[in-house]
User: Which sequence fits this backbone?
């Protein structure tokens, strides 16, 4: 049994502009000790998906369908109180992009970590403090015994993020959800945090769901990756398999359009157009409005996740999964032309 | 000279306006920046600058004059048609540099020369017209209540575009259909260059003159029997003299300035990959990438020479980033633009820049042609920065986190090389191990602060160098586990003597004694000099520059010829 099994999750937002189908039939699994990357552009629904796991969806949003099984237990059946008492913070922790908004400015870093420990374990306050210093040391805060008594604003951006990771680890969660935790950081600081994630996974053997828009980051911290597009998972595979052998046209373009330091502009081949609105997504395959190989049936059939390749863990939601989809080379200038103006990007970011 | 270039197909690839500004490396630089500094007072306001300082005699306050050295001595040249990318992490001063160059901040020191003249001497109106800035967040720089078309027209209105150039002539080129018996004379107003682009100093209007209806059935008698096909924006008055068999056509510009601006905005919308219909929409109806396109259209509307783009694609999705970078590249070619591109993202710079400067704490630490820099970095900071960028390709090396700690404060930058506090290649003086030098440096720091820990000579030496092994010879300096590090015997005896001086109160002598063993990375500021030795052949200007005491060859760096 997987540690986490998400099946056909649908989370909608009931807004005055219509129903935003932010997450619309998402399924994935996370094994014990595994790190899954959830990748996609803004509006893909990745952030809403992980917030759904934690029961953090607020009005006008609601989980309308689907199941989230954590260690065999159905989370969608739990009340807010039960979630807070039994799940959030002690089984599953979440790390956000903006550490400053998660840390309370009027308490010292130590007080905040100690509080989590005391609340969730049977450690005494003295033991909690010792443990907090240990955690700060683990996440690479220099002089933890001194710096534990400082306030969040006395920490640099990278250190705040480390402090938040320490807090997430405070009661030995089995699953950590990280939602773009390094997006706002400079690359040299990000590099340190990514290394830290690796170390933590090794030391604490936690499972992880890591949400990011950056394939390079996934490569550093994740074993497996699920690519999301407009509320659905379109492809899922072990990272290297996905990169070397992408089956879904969206994944292929995503890989081709990533700006990396070892390629020049000529090698860049962006996807044309913009993601349609999640209020009125295209029928059938949601990628069809931007897909260069779409055909008649794509507008009628919703492709399920097919097993593909030799790797049995590789699945893709494209009707042409088995005909060796080759992307045509779009003319360079065509590809820079945009679709009609879109409705505002969705709730995701 | 302001003209617009009219085409039917529009679109980024439709027109081929090959501007003669398009770069060549032997051209005079468009922009020259020399010794540029921008310092900000740490505390603005007199009261907040007063410090309590019990040391300063009878009146225990002093005025805090420290300043944040955001930009601290930057030199570079930018040639027409070139793109210089400036990369660095937050707080390195790259945005301040951009703003100072454009005159949005008053420089503290240094010279900025634009197209051969100091920016102080260029009338503000002219400078505004020839330079444009594109910001990171198009949302906040686009007024939400105004139509996109009007936003794009703003700079045109601000510069009272279009204006006719009196030195440009006007001419017509007439084609006739079925009018062999008639002589056609056409004249055009001098201001034809408002609408058509002049070639070799003459704006030529093409017109086709033909009879209305079937020429075999109907004779040409009056002006009503003649049709004239004119380009957009022109009107014609026709006079037919049946006896003389002549047709006189008087062509004039009929479009108002507002019409011309509107037409220019519509054309720009197409050029940046949007639709003419979007003219009447408002910014919120667009996605982030589309808003950045609008921003580019606005910046280009008055045909500037220099575009300074500050993080133009940060915050956009990866696929949209690629689209915008492609667009910027197309527009550069079409308009012969010169770009100064500021970014924290090395990959972005890689795509569009011809040369890259890496900035750290207000200074350039390395500058090189893009390809060369990405192939090999000479400066340890540039190397560390590049190795920290995650690359999705599993065949490329993964990230390495080699820099520790945080960027030091720009109000009190480290002495010597500003990167020395975090440099993984820090040059240890002969005979010192890393830990040994650290201990020695701490003693030196304490002497500078005039605050030694310990009461007598032995106690002080014990405090600072107690764990240090001084017996080792220079070539066996190592940090074995559990050992406090190594310093050479000479340094140890000098340290003892220095402490002696310090305890006598002669801090200067103490400091000078200790400084004899200081690392060159701390004692001397490395200049931004040609690196690699082999590159001076390249027109003297495209050479690689780096500010580091390390010899490039020490790093095993061999460049391809
Ligand atoms: S199902 Fe059709 S439209 Fe969708 S990705 Fe496959 S080929 Fe393209
Ligand atoms: S001068 Fe010294 S500290 Fe500075 S970059 Fe070079 S090796 Fe590093």
Assistant:
């Amino acid at each position: 049994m997987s540690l986490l099994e998400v099946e056909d999750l649908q989370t909608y937002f009931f807004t005055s502009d219509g129903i935003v189908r932010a997450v619309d039939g998402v399924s994935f699994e996370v094994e014990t000790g595994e790190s899954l990357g959830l990748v996609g552009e803004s509006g893909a629904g990745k952030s809403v998906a992980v917030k759904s796991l934690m029961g953090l969806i607020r009005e006008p949003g609601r989980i309308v369908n689907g199941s989230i099984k954590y260690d065999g237990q159905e989370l969608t059946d739990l009340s807010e109180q039960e979630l807070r008492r039994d799940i959030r913070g002690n089984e599953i922790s979440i790390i956000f992009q903006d550490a400053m908004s998660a840390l309370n400015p009027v308490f010292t870093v130590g007080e905040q970590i100690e509080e989590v420990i005391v609340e969730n374990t049977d450690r005494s306050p003295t033991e909690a403090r010792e443990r907090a210093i240990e955690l700060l040391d683990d996440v690479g805060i220099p002089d933890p015994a001194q710096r534990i008594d400082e306030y969040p604003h006395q920490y640099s951006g990278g250190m705040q993020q480390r402090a938040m990771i320490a807090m997430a680890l405070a009661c030995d969660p089995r699953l950590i959800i990280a939602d773009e935790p390094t997006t706002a950081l400079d690359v040299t600081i990000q590099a340190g945090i990514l290394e830290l994630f690796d170390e933590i996974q090794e030391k604490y053997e936690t499972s992880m769901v890591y949400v990011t828009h950056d394939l390079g980051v996934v490569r550093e911290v994740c074993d497996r990756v699920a690519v999301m597009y407009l509320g659905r998972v379109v492809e899922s595979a072990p990272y290297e398999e996905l990169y070397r052998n992408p089956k879904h046209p969206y994944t292929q373009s995503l890989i081709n359009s990533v700006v990396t330091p070892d390629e020049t502009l000529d090698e860049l081949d962006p996807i044309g157009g913009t993601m349609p609105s999640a209020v009125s997504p295209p029928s059938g395959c949601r990628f069809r409005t931007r897909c260069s190989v779409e055909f008649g049936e794509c507008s009628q059939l919703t492709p399920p996740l097919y097993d593909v390749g030799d790797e049995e863990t590789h699945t893709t939601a494209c009707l042409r999964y088995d005909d060796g989809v080759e992307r045509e080379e779009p003319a360079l200038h065509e590809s820079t032309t945009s679709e009609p103006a879109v409705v505002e990007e969705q709730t995701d970011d | 000279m302001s003209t617009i270039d009219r085409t039917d197909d529009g679109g980024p690839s439709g027109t081929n306006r090959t501007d003669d500004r398009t770069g060549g490396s032997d051209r005079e630089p468009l922009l020259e920046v020399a010794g540029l500094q921008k310092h900000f007072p740490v505390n603005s306001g007199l009261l907040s600058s007063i410090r309590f300082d019990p040391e300063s005699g009878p009146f225990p306050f002093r005025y805090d004059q420290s300043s944040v050295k955001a930009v601290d001595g930057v030199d570079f040249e930018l040639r027409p048609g070139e793109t210089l990318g400036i990369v660095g992490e937050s707080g390195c001063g790259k945005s301040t540099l951009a703003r100072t160059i454009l005159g949005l901040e008053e420089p503290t020191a240094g010279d900025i020369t634009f197209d051969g003249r100091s920016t102080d001497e260029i009338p503000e109106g002219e400078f505004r017209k020839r330079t444009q800035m594109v910001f990171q967040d198009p949302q906040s720089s686009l007024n939400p209540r105004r139509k996109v078309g009007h936003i794009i027209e703003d700079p045109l209105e601000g510069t009272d575009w279009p204006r006719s150039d009196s030195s440009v002539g006007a001419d017509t080129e007439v084609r006739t259909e079925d009018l062999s018996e008639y002589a056609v004379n056409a004249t055009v107003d001098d201001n034809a260059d408002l609408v058509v682009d002049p070639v070799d100093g003459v704006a030529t209007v093409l017109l086709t003159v033909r009879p209305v209806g079937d020429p075999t059935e109907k004779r040409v008698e009056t002006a009503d029997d003649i049709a004239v096909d004119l380009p957009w924006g022109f009107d014609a008055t026709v006079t037919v003299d049946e006896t003389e068999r002549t047709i006189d056509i008087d062509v004039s510009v009929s479009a108002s300035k507002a019409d011309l601006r509107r037409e220019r905005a519509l054309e720009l919308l197409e050029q940046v990959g949007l639709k003419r219909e979007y003219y009447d929409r408002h910014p919120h109806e667009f996605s982030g990438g589309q808003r950045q396109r609008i921003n580019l259209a606005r910046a280009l509307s008055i045909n500037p020479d220099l575009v300074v783009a500050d993080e133009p694609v940060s915050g956009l999705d990866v696929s949209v980033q690629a689209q915008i970078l492609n667009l910027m590249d197309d527009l550069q070619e079409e308009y012969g633009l010169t770009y100064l591109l500021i970014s924290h993202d090395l990959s972005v710079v890689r795509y569009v820049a011809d040369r890259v400067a890496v900035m750290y704490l207000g200074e350039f630490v390395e500058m090189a042609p893009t390809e060369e820099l990405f192939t090999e970095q000479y400066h340890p900071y540039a190397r560390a920065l590049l190795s920290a960028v995650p690359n999705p390709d599993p065949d490329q090396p993964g990230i390495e986190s080699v820099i520790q700690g945080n960027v030091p404060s720009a109000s009190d930058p480290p002495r010597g090389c500003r990167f020395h506090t975090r440099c993984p290649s820090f040059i240890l003086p002969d005979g010192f191990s890393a830990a040994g030098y650290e201990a020695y440096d701490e003693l030196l720091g304490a002497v500078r602060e005039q605050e030694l820990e310990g009461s007598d000579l032995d106690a002080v030496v014990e405090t600072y160098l107690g764990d240090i092994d001084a017996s080792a010879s220079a070539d066996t300096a190592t940090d074995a586990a559990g050992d406090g590090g190594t310093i050479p015997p000479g340094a140890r005896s000098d340290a003892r003597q220095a402490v002696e001086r310090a305890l006598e109160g002669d801090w200067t002598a103490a400091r000078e004694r200790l400084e004899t063993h200081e690392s060159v990375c701390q004692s001397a500021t490395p200049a931004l000099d040609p690196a690699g030795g082999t590159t001076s052949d390249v027109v003297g200007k495209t050479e690689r520059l780096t500010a580091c005491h390390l010899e490039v060859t020490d790093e095993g760096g061999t460049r391809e010829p």
About this structure: Chain B touches chain A through 60 residues (CB under 8 Å). Residues 434-518 of chain B form one domain. Residues B 379-380, 417, 419-420, 423, 425-427, 521, 526, 548-550 surround iron/sulfur cluster (ligand 2) (CB under 6 Å). The first helix of chain B runs from residue 11 to 14.
